[in-house]
Amino acid sequence: MAQSPFEIPQQLRELTEKNVEQASAAYGQFMNAMTQAMSMWWGALPPNEMTAGLKAVQDKAVRFAKQNAEAGFTLASSLANAKDIQEVLALQTHYAQSQMHTYALQAQELGRLMADTAKPKS
Asked: Which domain holds residue 78?
C-alpha cells in the first residue's frame, strides 16, 4: 500500500516516542534533585511568617512547573504517535488552548499567594 506523502512513518514515530520517554525521565530526575536542594535551602533559613509564605509560593510554582512539563511531555508523546499533519495540528491546537487556560489559573493562584505573603500580619 502506498504511503501518503503527509503520513509520518511508523519507525520515526517509535523513535520519537522513545526519545520523549527518555527526556521525560531525565526531567523527572532533575526536578527531584532540584526539589531536594530547595528543601535543604529552606531548612537552613530561620522560620518566620515571611519565609513560610515564600516557601508556599515556591512549592506551588514547582507544582505548576511539574504539571506544565507533564502536559508538554503528554503532548510530545501524542505528537510522536500522530499519523499525519492534520492530527499534529489538532493536537497542537488543543494543547495551546488548554495550556493558556491553565496558565491563567496558575498565574491567578500564584498572585493570590504572593499577595497573602506580602500582607502585614496583625
From this structure: 63-122
